[in-house]
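If your schedule permits, I should be very grateful for your opinion on a structural question. Please examine both parts with care and let me know of anything in them that strikes you as inconsistent. The record follows directly beneath this note:
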Amino acid sequence: MARGTRTPLHHDEFEQAFRACAAAARLDPYDPNPWVVRLGLLRQWRRPPTEVFPIWREIVARDPWHREAHLQMYGYLSPRECGSLAQSMDFVDQVRATAPATAPTAGLPLLALIDRYHTARSQGGVQALTADRLWSGYEATRILETAQAAWPEPGQAIAGIVTPSPGDTTAATPSWPTPPPNSEPTPALEPRTAERNSRAAAGQPQGTDVRHDADR
């Protein structure tokens, strides 16, 4: 993970790292970090959701707002890797709707906006010329206003973040992308994905009039 996803990982290195993660997880079952490293390894090897989602469930059971885990999952679900724009946006929407304002994942929506901006700029043509409009849209305005109002200042204590022990169901946990028990893991929320795909087919810009269920 420290070498980045663009550096090839040989099979023997992958197996060695995976075994080290398993050993670390046995030493401290409450530590999410060995599972986060596993997630990063599976992401590098572009493994299918059936292998990735069980690891994700183990992570959120230990630390529901683990920053690095969410960054890894966002990258895995991106159109550059194993997902799509709709899937990555659905993931960000669900994190934004369920995570506390001061959770370690608070910067994920802003990261996604920056990612979309640079993607548009890199495409050239009309996409690049109109990329700046993203920052004046409803979604960007809401995210930036939330960041300005809720993000802690330097040195300010962060309160309200509870890290549950495995099996603790009293604390809030992310509702996505954990699939239902005994079901085929799927990296998408079908209603929102269908809505975004219909927008794209109609030529409407992504991210317009973004509203969460709690806002309706």
